[in-house]
Structures are given as structure tokens and as C-alpha cells.
Design brief:
Layout: E1 2-6, E2 15-19, E3 29-38, H1 41-48, E4 62-70, E5 82-86, E6 95-99, E7 103-105, H2 112-132, E8 140-143, H3 149-160, E9 164-168, H4 172-180, E10 185-187, H5 192-199, E11 205-210, H6 217-221, E12 224-232, H7 246-250, E13 255-257, H8 268-283, E14 291-296, H9 300-308, E15 315-319
Parallel strand pairs: 8-9, 8-11, 9-10, 11-12, 12-13, 14-15
Antiparallel strand pairs: 1-2, 3-4, 3-6, 3-15, 4-5, 5-7
Helix pairs in contact: 2-3, 2-8
Bound molecules: NADPH dihydro-nicotinamide-adenine-dinucleotide phosphate.
């Protein structure tokens, strides 16, 4: 088998493709022949050392493929089944060992590249719109980086729940893409608080979904109605500075949360529910997954550079 290995933290070049011995699945494990692996910001943080890892390791948190061997005690899957997973390390590889309880079946009507592209960011948009702030008709949401991988899915799920969506992005092309996916209003970052106030008759939005972090956080607080929710779920521009809680009082008894997908996949039932909804919407044509670009596994470093440098609009995949 082939896998990307990282022996020391650093720039994307630390990722090297290596030949490894084919692993045998242990009890409760499934070996998956990977057809596509998703690239996510967390992979960049883990390679650079911003998130410290035990070295060496194989990056990658999501994949889709075909079951090609079963460990003892696995009865829920058979060889040949199409499966996907998220939140298990080691997916930048031709084959991966995954605990059966972490796998979900891919329904007919969803191809493997789409499945790999939708798992992590799709389930993130799912919990953000359904659990973190349950959107409904009458709500207005501000979504930053709306043409990003998570952003495009977030815009569509917010619309599925009946909310009005104001979207930000850094270029006209990206704003057009957000609009194609359903955004009602689109604005550049320059003076978004003033524009949001104007678009909401001075009231402010019910919720801001902020994955940009450092560059937008303070101004996101300016966009909320009294008792509104700031959902800070990422930091693509860098980490946010420490905050005095009194600020939340002064700006209108605001709520602030910093959620993570891991805490929203606590049980197998939760995993099956979220992945089932996401795949179901895709199969029904209600949710579009935009794959921006695809790289061979050997070019994982190029994939990281493209995602980090704001070149992409939608998902980046690696193919073994
Ligand atoms: P995106 O596809 O959204 O790419 C990042 C986007 O952020 C860029 O395209 C860019 O859009 C915007 N951006 C703004 N400033 C910068 C900057 N200085 N450098 C790079 N990008 C910038 O990535 P993802 O959807 O994969 O992830 C977005 C964030 O969400 C990441 O921080 C990620 O870790 C986080 N995340 C969190 C999860 C959770 O559960 N908490 C789960 C999934 C992702 P533009 O040019 O339009 O500004």
C-alpha cells in the first residue's frame, strides 16, 4: 500500500509518499481500499505542528472507498461494501484500517468522490444549523467564507431550514458562487458590519457562523441582534485573541460558542443520523457538493498550499 507519511512538522513538503506493508485489520476493524480522501484545514494544522502530533503519522481525516478485508467480530459490513468515514486519522493512503463503528454506508446515487467530499464538512454544516443554533424560517444568518468547502454546504443547509442568508467572501467570483448555492445577499469583508446592519433594518442577524477567526471575529460581534449567537467554528485567518466576557454583555447579552465536530459525533446513532441526512439530501438533489479540484496522493503538498492560500472554492480531494 501507499501512504503519505510525516516524519517531522513543517511546511507541506514534509508530506512524502511511501510504500508500506499492507496492514491486516484487527478485531472490530475494517480495511478500506480508499477511492478518495478529503483535504481539510485540520490536516494543515497537524502537518505544520500548530496541532502537535505523535510522529511519524499519516494525515487525513476523511475518506470514501470499498471494504476489502474484515477483522474478527465485524458483522455490520461485507467485503465490497461502499463506505465512508470522518474523524479517523490516516486517510491520505491507498488503504486504511478503520473501526467498523466509525464507518457509514454510502447509498446508491452518491459517488465516492462526492461522499469523501461531504463527510466532514457536510456533518459540520449539519450540526451547526440543526444543533448549535437551530435555524428556522424568520432567522437571518451571516455566513463567512461562504464559498469555502464548509461555507457552500452551510449556505445550502441554512436555506433548507428556511433562513435568510447573508454571505461574505473575498472575490466577486466567490460571492457569485455563494449566491448560486442560495445566499440571499452577498457582501465583501471590507465593511460587512455596516452592510449587515443596513440589510437587517438596523436589527442585526440572529447568528453569525464564523470560520475565519482572527480577521472577522470582533466585527462579527457588531453584526448580532441582542441575545444573538456568535458561532466561531474555525480560524482560517488565525486564532482569535483572548476575550473579556464583559464584551458579550456590552454588545447585547450575546452568546459565544466554539464548537467542534468531534463533540457532535458522540455516538454511532449520531454519526448515522448526520451522515444519513447529508447523503440523503445529496441523493435527492437537495444538496450540491462542489469539488473544486482533485490531486493525486503524491501531490498532497500542492493540495495543502491551494487550500491555505484561499485559491479554492469548495472541496479539495486526493486520489490514491
Ligand atoms: P475553506 O474551504 O472555507 O477555506 C478557507 C477559506 O477561509 C478561504 O477559502 C477563504 O475564503 C477564507 N479565509 C479568510 N481569511 C483567510 C486566510 N487568512 N487564509 C486562508 N483562508 C482565509 O476551508 P474549510 O471549510 O475546510 O474550513 C474552514 C475553517 O473551518 C477552518 O478553520 C477549519 O479548521 C474549520 N472547521 C471547523 C470544524 C468544526 O467542527 N469546528 C469542521 C470543519 C472545518 P475567502 O477568500 O472567501 O475569505
Amino acid at each position: 500500500m501507499r501512504a503519505i507519511r510525516v516524519h517531522q512538522h513543517g511546511e507541506p513538503e514534509v508530506m512524502q509518499l511511501e510504500d508500506l506493508t499492507m496492514p491486516t485489520p484487527g478485531p472490530g476493524q475494517v480495511r478500506v481500499r480508499v477511492e478518495a480522501s478529503g483535504v481539510n484545514f485540520i490536516d494543515i494544522y497537524q502537518c505544520s505542528g500548530q496541532y502537535k502530533m505523535n510522529l511519524p503519522f499519516t494525515p487525513g481525516q476523511e475518506a470514501a472507498g470499498v471494504v476489502d478485508a474484515l477483522g474478527d467480530g465485524v458483522s455490520s459490513f461485507s467485503v465490497g461494501d461502499r463506505v465512508a468515514s470522518a474523524f479517523t486519522l490516516g486517510m491520505y493512503a491507498s488503504h486504511a484500517l478503520i473501526a467498523a463503528e466509525k464507518l457509514v454506508p454510502i447509498p446508491a446515487g452518491v459517488d465516492s468522490q462526492t461522499a469523501a467530499a461531504a463527510m466532514l464538512q457536510g456533518m459540520t454544516a449539519h450540526y451547526l444549523t440543526i444543533d448549535t443554533f437551530p435555524l428556522r424560517e424568520g432567522h437571518t444568518a451571516l455566513i463567512h467564507a461562504a464559498a469555502g468547502g464548509t461555507g457552500l454546504l452551510l449556505v445550502q443547509m441554512a436555506k433548507l431550514r428556511g433562513a435568510r442568508v447573508i454571505a461574505t467572501a473575498s472575490s466577486q467570483q466567490k460571492l457569485s458562487l455563494a449566491r448560486e448555492m442560495g445566499a440571499d445577499e452577498t457582501v465583501f469583508y471590507d465593511d460587512f458590519p455596516a452592510q449587515v446592519k443596513a440589510l437587517t433594518g438596523g436589527r442585526g442577524v440572529d447568528v453569525v457562523y464564523d470560520s475565519v477567526g482572527k480577521d472577522t471575529f470582533e466585527r462579527s460581534l457588531e453584526c448580532l441582534r441582542p441575545r444573538g449567537y456568535l458561532v466561531l467554528f474555525g480560524q482560517s485567518s488565525g486564532p482569535v485573541a483572548p476575550l473579556d466576557p464583559q464584551v458579550l454583555n456590552a454588545k447585547g447579552s450575546l452568546f459565544l460558542t466554539r464548537p467542534s465536530l468531534g463533540h457532535h459525533l458522540q455516538t454511532r446513532e449520531e454519526l448515522l443520523l448526520r451522515a444519513g441526512d447529508v447523503f440523503g439530501w445529496i441523493a435527492a438533489g437537495a444538496l450540491k457538493v462542489r469539488i473544486d479540484r482533485v490531486y493525486p496522493l503524491a501531490q498532497a503538498a500542492d493540495a495543502h498550499r491551494a487550500l491555505a492560500s484561499r485559491e479554492t472554492s469548495g472541496k479539495v480531494l486526493l486520489l490514491p
